Amino acid sequence: MAVLRLLSMQPKMMSVIMMVMMGLVVLVAAGDTNRVYSPCIDTKVKRSDGFTFGIAFASRENFLYNHTVQLSPCDSRLSLTTYNSQIALFRPKVDEISLLTINSSSFSPDNNTGLMVAFAGRKYAARSPIAFVANSTYTVTSFTLVLEFEKGRLQNLYWKRDGCAKCPGNSNYVCLNNQDCAIKTSDCKNHGGSVDCSIGIQLAFSGTDKHLSVFNSWYEVENLRQYSLYGLYSNLRDSLTSQYNKFF
Ligand SMILES: *[C@@H]1O[C@H](CO)[C@@H](O)[C@H](O)[C@H]1NC(C)=O
Ligand SMILES: *[C@@H]1O[C@H](CO)[C@@H](O)[C@H](O)[C@H]1NC(C)=O
Ligand SMILES: *[C@@H]1O[C@H](CO)[C@@H](O)[C@H](O)[C@H]1NC(C)=O
Ligand SMILES: *[C@@H]1O[C@H](CO)[C@@H](O)[C@H](O)[C@H]1NC(C)=O
Q1: How many independent structural domains does the chain possess?
Q2: Where is the signal peptide (predicted)?
Q3: Can you give the residue range of the structural domain that contains 150?
C-alpha cells in the first residue's frame, strides 16, 4: 500500500499566486530532489520527488484562446490573471496516493468560475480537460486526477470517471452527464445548507519516472471505491465522510 497523504489548499486569486511563485523559496523535504517549485516550469521527476502542479478555476471562455483553443493556464495568452479566476497549487509526492482538498469556506466555485483545469509545465505543457465543478444548481465534490509521466516528464493529466457507479443512492445526489455525482448547491454550507462541499481530488500517478521505475499508485486507486479514501483521513472524516453517511 502506498503512503497516503492529505494536502489542503485555500485557492488564491491568480495574480497573488503568480507573485508568490516568482519569489518562491521552499525547504526541500527529505528524499525530494526536484528543485522546481513553479507549476509553469518544466521538470523531470523520480519516485519520492515532490511535483508541483496547479488547478485553475475559471469559466469556459477563460480557458480558451480565441474562443476555440484550450491552452495551459501557464500560457500568458490566456491572461487568466485579468479575470476573476482562482488557482490552487499543490506539491504531492510522486507515486503516493494523495487526497487534495479545497476548502469551501473561502471558495465558492459557482460564483464566477464553475470549471477547473489541472496544469503543469511550459514547453512541455500538460493540461487536463475542462471539468465541471459547480454552478448555482449543482456542485461536484469528488474527483480523481491521473498524472501520467514518461521517463519522469509529465505527459498528460486527465480526470478518471466511473460513470456514477459509486453515487450514493439517495435523492440528494444526481448523476450529471453519466459521469459525475453532483449534490444540490443549495445543500452546501456556503449556501445555507448542511453539507460541507469542499472539493476532494484523489491523485494517481501512472507511467515511469526518470530512471524508468514504474509508478504503482495508479493500480491502487483503480481498486479503491471513489469515496473510500476519505475514510482514511481521520481529520476529514467528520467534515466529509459523515455527511455522506447521513444520506446512506
Ligand atoms: C481567431 O479565430 C478566427 C475565426 O476562427 C480566425 O479568423 C482568427 O485568425 C483567429 N485569430 C487568431 C489570433 O488566432
Ligand atoms: C474548512 O475550513 C473550516 C474553517 O477553517 C473548517 O471548520 C472545516 O473543517 C474545513 N473543512 C475541511 C474539509 O477541511
Ligand atoms: C460569492 O458571491 C456572493 C454574492 O455575490 C458574495 O457575497 C460572496 O462573498 C462570494 N463568495 C466568494 C467566496 O467569493
Ligand atoms: C448547471 O449545470 C448542469 C449540468 O451541466 C446543467 O444541466 C444546468 O442547466 C446548469 N444550471 C445553470 C443554472 O446553469
Answers
A1: 1
A2: 1-30
A3: 4-245
* 80: its cell numbers: 487568466
Ligand 3 close to Cβ of residue 111 (< 6 A): yes
Which three-class secondary structure state does DSSP give residue 224? coil
Ligand 2 pocket, residues with Cβ under 6 angstroms: 8, 101, 103, 105, 196, 198, 236, 239-240
Residue 64 CA to ligand 1 center (angstroms) comes to 12
Q: Is 18 exposed, middle or buried (0-12, 13-18, 19+ CB in 10 A)?
A: middle
Strand partners, 93: 50
- Label the pairing between strands 142-150 and 153-159: antiparallel
Can you tell me the distance from the alpha carbon of 10 to that of 197, in angstroms, rounded to the nearest whole number? 14
Please say whether the dihedral angle defined by the alpha carbons of residues 66, 71, 77 and 83, taken in this order, is positive or negative: positive
179 or 11, higher pLDDT: 179
Question: Which residues make beta-bridge pairs with 149?
Answer: 154, 207
Ligand 4 centroid to Cα of residue 113, in Å, is 13
Res. 208: pLDDT tops 80: yes
What amino acid occupies position 178? N
Contact (CB, 8 A) for 153 and 209: no
Q: What is the mean pLDDT of residues 157-162?
A: 89
